[in-house]
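Throughout this review, each integer encodes one residue's backbone shape. One record appears below.

===
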Amino acid sequence: MRKAGLLFWLAATMAAPAALAGDASGFDPAAIDQCLAAAETQGARADCATAGMDACLDYVRQKYTGDDPDFPMANCLDASHQAWEVKLTAVYQAALEGGEAQETLRRVERSWIDFREILCERARETGGDLAHGRCIRDETARQAALLTSLAEPQ
């Protein structure tokens, strides 16, 4: 981590507002749940992968004083990805508890992780670290949405 990034993290950790649920990144994971809930009430499938990104970017751009122009986006992509990982893990664990095909689900998820890593490494090779971060975040969000839809009663 760059020195400026570390200093930003330390300063933001000490001054993070309560609305961010203690997250110094500026990303509020509740934005994901709000997007998914809004889509559900409208009876539609929404692409919620970018939920919360605008607010996060606004927050970070106000707080970050370093010289890395990619830091705000990288910070928010990582925080968003982490929130989606939490969501995916919860959905996956629920599916394992209630499903008959637990071993099949495990194999499918392992294959998906391999697929995501290959796909997103290719994104890094062609578009750099930010492209990789977007890919990881977007693919994790899609998988969480897919598992959620498979778990819903038909």
Notes: The first helix runs from residue 3 to 15.
